[in-house]
Amino acid sequence: MSDLENLLSEDRRFPPSMEFAQAANAQPGMYAEADTDRLGFWERQARELSWAQDWTQVLDWSGAPFARWFVGGRLNVAVNCLDRHVDAGFGDQVAIHFEGEPGDTRTITYAGLLAEVSQAANALTELGVQAGDRVAIYLPMIPEAAVAMLACARIGAPHSVVFGGFSADALSSRIADADAKVVITADGGYRKGGAFALKPAVDEAVEQCPGVEHVLVVRRTGQEVGWTDKDVWWHDVVGRQPSTHTAVAFDAEHPLFILYTSGTTAKPKGILHTTGGYLTQVTFTHRNVFDLKPDTDVYWCTADVGWVTGHSYVVYGPLANRATQVMYEGTPDTPHQGRWWEIVANYGVTILYTAPTAIRTFMKWGEQLPAEHDLSSLRLLGSVGEPINPEAWMWYRRVIGGDRCPIVDTWWQTETGAIMISPLPGVTATKPGSAMRALPGIGANVVDDQGRPVPDGGGGYLVLDQPWPSMLRGIWGDPERYAQTYWSRFDGIYFAGDGAKKDADGDLWLLGRVDDVMNVSGHRISTTEVESALVSHPAVAEAAVVGADDPMTGQAIVAFVIPRGGAPEETDALIAELRAHVATQIGAIAKPRNVFIVQELPKTRSGKIMRRLLKDVAENREVGDTTTLADGSVMSAISGRLAAGGGTGDES
Length: 652
Ligand code: PRX
Known about the structure:
The strands form eight sheets. The protein has an eight-stranded mixed beta sheet with strand order 12-11-8-6-7-14-15-23, with helices on both faces. It has a seven-stranded mixed beta sheet with strand order 5-4-17-16-18-19-20, with helices on both faces. A four-stranded antiparallel beta sheet has the order 21-22-24-25. The longest helix has 17 residues, at about 110-125. Among the domains are: about 1-75 and about 270-465 and about 485-520, ANL, N-terminal domain (Rossmann fold); about 535-645, 2-Layer Sandwich (GMP Synthetase, Chain A, domain 3), CATH 3.30.300. The chain is globular, with a radius of gyration of 24 Å. α5 crosses α7, α5 (about 75-90) packs parallel to α12 (about 310-320) and α14 crosses α16. The protein is of the alpha/beta class. It has 21 helices and 30 strands. Adenosine-5'-monophosphate-propyl ester binds near residues 308, 385, 412 and 497.
């Protein structure tokens, strides 16, 4: 509650400068315009794109919760991102300034990108990929990732990008669920000063997935790779294709991509996005939330293409708006902790979009690092992925933004496809830590347990009460889970899974997840997913996982594990092994910060694990109400175990 009280007393306001406001793409009238005629508003946004065939209906919601937007319309996403800019005479404009971690660079113009995408589209066609076939993409942050996605979009083959940090197991379950025919990968990539490998994980995954016919391999690092008869080199097959390709238009509801994200069960959900509505909303939000001026801005979104932010705000939104952008392969501290600021200065970045966890890391590293570089090109800053604490917000504004750049804290999800709640940078007087309001054309609210909107000053659950163009069209292969997960908590409205509060002015403050989903460095991981990885280890009888507050990563994964057959002799060795085991099962991002070996878990009389109590312990709080516990002494035993420290299995 004290956090909520603090929010209510936040009285700092940061309106845009007069100069910024006057030149902004989004002007104040946009809210009223959208309120007056919501569908007409979205229809006008859709007209900013190039359509091969007009729609007959803006929204068909008769099959709710399955929406159809721009019914009957036809378009090609890649044509909207590339051909139309080249046709309009912007072929020589830089689309991507690529910077590899080792310092290699590539400058790719719109004409160059179109040629590469055309070649890749021809190559996929040669490999037998047809419209509707799924293609899995498992690549580092290199231009080929964007090329591969756009080539899939161009031929109507939905892509499923799997983050390069995921393990072979995670990759194979995603390939299998989507039944992908082709996998696009690389030998490896560069991270933290060295080459990491991707191909071995693909080899292992493809062995489990007989449906995969070809693996297209980009040579990035030149490291040794194993080779099977399904493997073909990108430079061979793509390289010899013609650099022109005639694209056909697809239905507005043609599937564009599947992206897996964690839900509250151990099985990730394949979130499905389609073509016309998705592109309309990512393009609209990218232009208006980031105030993109295609002729002068240099935009940089630091997200990996493996996450939805990389889909919507590295690939589709920026390219549809003819942005010039920076793409960086590596980590922020390689070879030194000033790397990002060097990049901003070198390329003259004007718009920077990143995550609170990165900002907090830079705060820890100290303000002397950004101060060594000229950041005066920056004119707008964005934040995404988790609630940004007011201290980090203020630091971002002052140290990175030189007290002059508006900050847009953008709330959205894999499921929403595009930004939903955010300031409009030339309109909104922002408050440090608040995402402020639903964008024009978007309906968001905070409701209580019964689904009734709370008054200003109240807290509850964040819901979206109007269908929106880039909304997910379902969960791949599981329509029931879609309806159940998002639309059953409150009748007919979308439940986002987040807690939120309205302040006295009705502005929104996001309070994190209210379900069993953790948010670690802006990445979604479910407690059950990690628990099931832990119990798949032969030494584990039972496991409970909680997300504990962490000053750097937002939340950290803390696991409580009951070993099989009593206390192990080598606790530290087991802990280290279990942490490594989770990394193999899911990926390094899911590795628990702490694993505590306990003899019992707190359970209710009906056998339900009381995670709330474990969270209290993990966050060093006094343990809450234990009266519903079957065995009241369990918590003191666990607290005693934690007080003894450790849990990491090593010195770190
Ligand atoms: O809890 C919210 C948090 O991230 C979740 C969505 O995660 P994902 O689908 O991986 O997409 C992340 C990038 C869009 C949300 O349910 N979240 C995202 N942005 C914010 C946020 N929480 C608070 N403030 C934000 N700006």
